[in-house]
Amino acid sequence: MIPREIQVVEEKFMKKELPPIEVGDYVDVHVRILEGEKERIQVFSGVVIAKHGGGLRETFTVRRIVQGEGVERTFPIHSPRIAKVEIKRRAKVRRAKLYYLRDRVGKAARLKERRHRREELLAMQGNEQSSEAPAESTSQEETS
Fold first, then answer.
1. Global confidence as pTM
2. Residue 123: its pLDDT value, please?
3. Quick check: 139 pLDDT over 60?
């Protein structure tokens, strides 16, 4: 168990608003890259194959295929280098670690999408408000 004093110090550095990242999610991780004096954002897209640790030390591993080679990168969730994490899709998985994807190639590496939680995904990204607006305007047009 972590002493209370350490928890108080760690809470200062933890991010407040984080999407609930789960294993099997297809994510876009926006990473701040420093090149000399300039700073830019680079996006790393892929599937979350593992989560480790907890609290300030929590990390997640993202895997993607680049030019036929598998590339994995581990990100600390609360790092200031992470600008934001966008969840694109959620997959139906039955394991905590998806290391078996390392041996799969092409279509065999696909995961089944969780369709019944699509509304939840849209709500997390804030797109639900924009999708409601056209629905209201069509109902007004039908009445007039």
1. 0.74
2. 66
3. no
Q: What angle do CA 76, 24, 11 make, to 5 degrees?
A: 30
Tell me, rounded to whole angstroms, the distance of Cα 70 from its chain centroid: 18
The amino acid occupying position 90 is R
Return the ∠ at Cα 34 (arms to 33 and 39), rounded to 5°: 85
Dist. CA 55–CA 60, nearest whole Å: 12
Please name every residue paired with 30 in a beta bridge, in sequence order, or none if there are none: 43, 84
Q: Domain 9-113 belongs to what topology?
A: SH3 type barrels. (2.30.30)
Average pLDDT over residues 109-118: 76
Tell me the three-class secondary structure of the chain, residue by residue.
CCCHHHHHHHHHHCCCCCCCCCCCCEEEEEEEEEECCEEEEEEEEEEEEEEECCHHHCEEEEEEEECCEEEEEEEECCCCCEEEEEEEECECCCCCCCHHHHHCCHHHHCCCECCCCHHHHHHHHCHHHHHHHHHHHHHHHHHC
d(CA 31, CA 26): 16
Closest CA to 28 of 113, 86, 76: 86
Structure tokens at 79: 């790092």
Q: Which two tokens stand for residue 32?
A: 């701040």
Instruction: Write down how long the chain is.
Output: 144
